[in-house]
Amino acid sequence: MTAQEGSTRARTIDAIIIGAGFGGLYSLHLLREAGLSARVYDAADGVGGTWRYNNYPGARVDFPGGPYYCYTFSQELVNEWDWADTQPDQKSVLAYLDYVADKFDLRTDIQLQTRVERAAFDEANNLWTIETDHGERVTASYLICAVGNLSAPYLPDIAGIESFAGECYHTGLWPEEPVSFAGKRVGVIGTGSSAVQAIPIIAETADQLTVFQRTPQYTLPAGTRPLDPEFIRQNRENWPELRQQMINSPFGTPFVPPTRSALEDSPEQRQETYEAHWQQGGLGIAFNSYYDILTDQEANETLAEFVRGKIRSIVNDQAVARKLLPDYILGTKRQILDTGYYATYNRDNVTLVDLREDPFQQFDATGVTTESGYHPLDMLVMATGYDAVTGALVKLNPVGRGGNTLKQAWKERFSTYLGMMIPGYPNLFMIHGPESPCVLFNMPLGAELEAEWIRDCIVSLREKSQQTIEPASGAADSWGQEVAEVASQTLFPLTDSWYNGSNIPGKHRQFAVHVGGADYFKRLTQVAENGYEGLVITG
Ligand code: NA7
């Protein structure tokens, strides 16, 4: 569409939704069902949000996956969609979201290949106006930002990296056309979830793979396997109960939380427990073995040492194994699931560079020099992560009351109420906002519950002819304190991670996740039942 065509299509609707991922699609469905007009805008050429861009080799769900990483609201949808395996790959998740868009006839109100370049609140008329990169202006009473937590890729500033002339890809901006590693010398920077999923696959065909590691990571075997049809049948039959169990759980899963402390068991019993989980695969070893893995450092260390033992036994060359041994608190960075990651270092074509003892010095057109020497490269894979949770919102940079941009408002620290609304930004809602459970809860289910809360809130405002809603003075400060307090009961804040922004140079350190899980969602319900306490409503 040209700018002229765009500008002739200026219109006013009830709600503008930015982002066509899990949160945006369901928000559209709910608002339309409530009789409101809504439109989704997304820069990509298809639905899927973050999942569309993360199509690097090996990308898979790294949460208790099939059949739980999905929408839960529709029994019909649950009955119709067959997840192939326990950790669905990126293509299955995209296919699922395409199916959802068709099933609920969402596409007529989704505008793809359209970037929202500006969003501003008009205080005189209580309306949000957006401008798109096609020159289109749209106004709406409500702005719903479903822009994703891991959608602002981070490219570190490493000396000379811009002069590298080979192929270069970021895992979060992976091209749709196939990338071949055959016959190439490939360098991967990073050893987070994306790198750990991609490395074993790249190693299969690359001539030479060099992994540049800054922080060694604990990764657990994903144990991906086909889903048993009988298991799927039982899940479908018991879906309403399972859904409720997920909503009532700490991480949005239907598993019964453990009741034993790791310190209550003898070393032999613990070994047996951990070994059984290791063989089973998945996150169970960290989240369902003992209740205190993420709250007690001594308990945590028992599992950390078990995983270090596995690294020593899997990796043949003990000098390499030593470089791979993590020393932070297990689980306090994003917990990774892998398929053959540590064993990949037994291959002759794979080299590990430990940047802590052998740092980068300088990139040039054909490779990089580290302290120990030169590494010639044909391709560079930047698996260097994201300006997580807040990055995409700050990039959107909505303008609130008094012409205040979000960049200004969040310069020192971010501030929200319930992780859903921002002081000074009336009628702006976030799905998976900072200070919501976002990345530490089943994300599709969390998006669903938040979208339902937003729908209820908007319907209530409409029924009472109310114009605006925004956090009351002080409500965001108290919320921030509560988020920090809940986090302080866990080990998460003790580690540098993207959960607290410390992966981005210059970003202030602030824990961005409400780790309350089910308690958070109960709180949302309570706030609504108490007449939206903590929020100022006008009109
Ligand atoms: P992560 O988990 O943020 O990993 C990024 C990796 O990149 C991590 O190993 C970083 O090391 C490393 N990194 C970042 N900057 C540098 C520089 N300057 N030099 C060397 N290494 C660097 O992002 P992912 O994409 O892997 O994971 C996000 C996923 O979480 C998402 O896709 C879901 O699967 C869940 P560090 O640890 O900071 O020392």
**Count of discrete alpha- or pi-helical segments spanning 4 or more residues:** 17
Main sheet properties: 7 strands, mixed
What Rg is obtained from the alpha carbons, in whole angstroms? Answer: 24 Å
C-alpha end-to-end distance: 38 Å
Summarize this structure as a short list of keywords or feature phrases:
single chain; about 550 residues; alpha/beta; seven-stranded mixed beta sheet; five-stranded parallel beta sheet; 17 helices; 19 strands
Model description:
With 539 residues, the protein is of the alpha/beta class. 32% of the residues lie in helices and 17% in strands. The chain is built from 17 helices and 19 strands. The strands form five sheets. Strands 1, 2, 3, 4, 5, 6 and 17 form a seven-stranded mixed beta sheet that branches. A five-stranded parallel beta sheet has the order 7-16-8-9-12, with helices on one face. It has a three-stranded antiparallel beta sheet with strand order 13-14-15, with no helix packed on it. The longest helix has 21 residues, at 443-463. The chain is globular and about 70 Å long. Residues 54, 62, 150, 156, 158, 171, 189-195, 212, 214-215, 334, 355, 383-385, 498, 503 line the site of ligand NA7.
